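Changelog-adjacent note: as of this version, every example in the card shows the full chain rather than a window. The one below runs 400 residues end to end.
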Amino acid sequence: MTGFSARVSRTLALLIWLLAAPVVAQEPFGGTAGEPPPASGGAQAAPLLWHYGAYLDLSYDVDFNFPQNHLWRSRSTTNRVNELTPNMGLVYVRKDATNESRWGMEFGGQGGYDSKEFAFLQGEPKVAGADTLRHFSRANVSYLAPVGGKDLTVTAGLFNSLIGYESLYAKDNFNYTRSWIADNTPYMMFGVNARYPINENLTATAFVINGYFHLAHANDQPSYGGQMSWKATSRVTVTETIYYGPAQANTSMEFWRLYSNWITEWKGDGVTVALSYDFGTENIAGQPGSPRAFVTGGALFTRWHVAGPWSLAVRPEFYWDRNGRWTGNQQLVKAITNTVEYKIPCAWTNTTLRAEYRYDESTGPQGGFFKNGNFANGQPMLTPGQHLLLFGVLWTFDSP
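Full-length structure tokens:
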């Protein structure tokens, strides 16, 4: 096991031991499971600090190209087609950090097809034990430190990525399938971040992490980044996140990767609209002339809560991987995704039904999607366009 992998394993093992102990030692909800203890003397009950939950995601995705290998090319999530697919299963426990109880934690486990290849780019070397570590969804501790009359939040371990608008978990997104920019940026980060509210409208975050993708092992050096989030109005928030660090075996600064993620979100009473634009670049070591790789993409996320349990979402997008560094293929992708959602709440659970149609077009020297038919020169045949019709069932259980 490499020195880096050993450090990852020891850190996660320590986090598990630290985080599991208070769960066993404490009955967070009192007598009846899931119910807070009664307030004494008629006083209002304090907010619950401990939360737990579970999540299950199943889908059947009809690819009208009917590829023989049942794969959606160049994708890491929802990449199984024309079969019933258990994309994700998740369980978690979380303790909130508050002014009265300043230590917090998150711990969760996951499994399913979406947990297989979400944490590294195609062809990248992996950390030792990656097939086990991919089952951790969260494993971190946090602390609220009073600084300058405000709270500095420090989080260490495996935490949600600071890059991107969409989550690894379909339940948290407007659409069932993720965008191309989401699939090629980190869904999680491993390291330390510190978040501080400069004023009521501006929040700054800095982070030091083990790499662009937390289960990729290009080298043993850390990477760095920062984020500024500005609440421009009561409805508009602008966020800019920068990543900078070595993502290749050659760690000279001339080969460091620069990646930028910019998001502007507008929240109305029943409609949310967000525009996300990304670009990334790095010089490729070990190739003649050290060519500069470049990727850029954008997506417009729109969600409309129609009425009651019904919602609609639309997402046009594009993604240009000029050198094939991110997707593994030199291609320009254009896509449009349309989603209808029906939600069935019951006590602490939600069952969400989604039907989705999307069309993707991939062009360029190595573009295309798998299709049915004979293999050419031992490789699956490709076609530029792909029509998908998807049916998803998302079941969630969340304690208060």
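Structural remarks: Residues 3-25 form the longest helix (23 residues).
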